[in-house]
Amino acid sequence: MFKYKIEPRLSETDGLGHINNTVLPVWFEEARKDLFRIFNPSLEVKTWNLILKRFEVEIVNQINHTSPVTIITYIEKIGEKSLIVQQEASQDNIKVASGKTVLIHFDYSTNTASEIPKEIRDRLNKHLVQ
Amino acid sequence: MFKYKIEPRLSETDGLGHINNTVLPVWFEEARKDLFRIFNPSLEVKTWNLILKRFEVEIVNQINHTSPVTIITYIEKIGEKSLIVQQEASQDNIKVASGKTVLIHFDYSTNTASEIPKEIRDRLNKHLVQ
Amino acid sequence: MFKYKIEPRLSETDGLGHINNTVLPVWFEEARKDLFRIFNPSLEVKTWNLILKRFEVEIVNQINHTSPVTIITYIEKIGEKSLIVQQEASQDNIKVASGKTVLIHFDYSTNTASEIPKEIRDRLNKHLVQ
Amino acid sequence: MFKYKIEPRLSETDGLGHINNTVLPVWFEEARKDLFRIFNPSLEVKTWNLILKRFEVEIVNQINHTSPVTIITYIEKIGEKSLIVQQEASQDNIKVASGKTVLIHFDYSTNTASEIPKEIRDRLNKHLVQ
Q1: Within chain B, which residues score under 50 in pLDDT?
Q2: Pairing of strands C112-113, D2-6
Q3: CB neighbours of A43 closer than 8 A, spacing ≥ 6?
Q4: Partners of B13 in beta bridges
Q5: Interface contact flag, B15 A48, Cβ < 8 Å
Q6: Does residue A105 contact residue A39 with C-beta atoms inside 8 Å?
Q7: In C, which residues are within 8 Å of A18 by CB distance?
Q8: Is D10 within 8 Å of B13 when comparing Cβ atoms?
Q9: What is the number of other CB atoms lying within 10 angstroms of the CB of residue B124?
Q10: pLDDT at A24 exceeding the cut of 90
Q11: DSSP symbol at A116
């Protein structure tokens, strides 16, 4: 499991006074940074090898911009060419949102999905929670 | 069905050269503007009466910033206090993404869900696609 | 002079109820699209040939998300390798913000500024306001 | 002087491969958080008492999303009702951008500028760099 701390921004609130729902996918992507490093240690775009297929976000509680948000990231399933990532955001020890993302191991030079190599798979397995 | 045209922004691309996935919920929220007007004609935040519960986004094709994106919005289901909205984004006549959003009719003064009034329900029914 | 219409987004408001100041550079960049087409007709990133050096934004009035914003873009000065762009945003016929941006004609393959070609300069001259 | 660390996001890059220029005002606003706390310790929007009048951003070097950015914030000038804030962003010990922002002490209930109280002024003075 990866743990990541987000400092909410005033610009991420909306007129209703809380964090706008569209910010959650941004935070969840940032919180997947350590997962991305397993696939692409440098994080450089030239060697990027993942593509996002789909995501779901559920808002459980209104989120304020006044205190940090902690995001837990773990892997639900590892397929041949893809993986399912689960994430949970909490603020002041209360769960505020959850997210599920399907990522595909992807070769941008040929625009095709490709098998996840064994050494990456071994590292991913350590973050698999069932 | 509502139809809305988005002009993608250079700032919405990412280092991989296409529109970043986190932009889709922003576009889908913008494209729900006419739906929001059924609930709150002025769009003023003081009279806002919807809260987002969950959303799903599926990316079907890579999206460029160089041509407009058309978003179709319709209603899949109207519940007592909530509704399910379906959206489809296309670019150059090719489907690029779809989205599903659950919205709750909400009273921000009491922080509780409330029944969708009949006159709003009647107007929503015209956009129900089954 | 270029004229561009922006539809403000709910997600662009902040907790104070108006459009957050950080949104202005995003809108101004979007409104420079027709100017960008003079430099790079396809808008493709592979052939992009401008880099932003600096910008200033002044907020003149609070901006709402409930009505469109019109942005006027014109050129204040054309240098050998750079240009200064002026922009004015108005809402409901009231000026709400202004912006000034310095762009450099740039060769990304060598990472150096380069002279603005005569044919681009001729087209730019039509949008020069003194 | 305030020091603040930003973790750049993949979604903040653009198609040219670096952090898009429009992200700088967002980072600078986030990095002013400790300054905001002097004016409004809770950071709650209900008691917010500042409004942004203008800002300038200069990009000194291209910014990557692969390593953290450090932002230094200090005060250049304290007026009767306003202050000028200077900020500098660096990455891997190289200066990448600078920003200058004019903030006005503001009473949102009457929509007018108001004098900066002595106790806030005293605390601001500690961050004045001349």
Answers
A1: none
A2: unpaired
A3: A33, A36, A37, D10, D65, D66
A4: B19
A5: yes
A6: yes
A7: 15
A8: no
A9: 17
A10: yes
A11: P
Structure tokens at A36: 């991305």
Handedness of CA A114, D67, C51, C29 (dihedral sign): positive
CB A26 within 8 Å of CB B22: yes
Chain-chain contact of D59 with C48 (C-beta, under 8 angstroms): no
* pLDDT tens figures, C8-49: 999 999 999 999 999 999 999 999 999 999 999 999 999 999
Contact C12, A16 (CB under 8 A): no
Query: Which residue in D15, D22, D108 is closest to C25 by CB distance?
Result: D22
A11 φψ region: left (φ > 0), alpha (ψ -120 to 50), beta (else): alpha
Return the residue of C nearest to A12 by Cα.
C14
SS3 content of chain C, % helix, strand, coil (to 5): 25, 40, 35
pLDDT value at position B130?
80
Name all chains with 3 or more CB-CB pairs below 8 Å to chain B.
A, C, D
pTM for the whole thing? 0.97
Pairwise CB contact (< 8 Å): A9 & D17 = no
Considering only CA atoms, which of A112, A60, A115, A122 is closest in space to residue A89? A60
Of B17, B22, B23, the CB nearest to D15: B17
A28-48 per-position pLDDT tens digit: 999 999 999 999 999 999 999
Residue D27: is its pLDDT beyond 90?
yes
B21-39 pLDDT tens trace = 999 999 999 999 999 999 9
- pLDDT tens per residue across span A84-123: 999 999 999 999 999 999 999 999 999 999 999 999 999 9
Enumerate the residues of chain A whose CB falls inside 8 A of the CB of residue B57: 25, 54-56
ipTM: 0.96
Cβ under 8 Å to D: B residues 43-82:
65
Chosen from C32, C33, C36, C69 to mutate, greatest number of chain B CBs within 10 A: C33
Strand B50-59, strand B2-6: pairing: unpaired
Structure tokens at C76: 């204040």
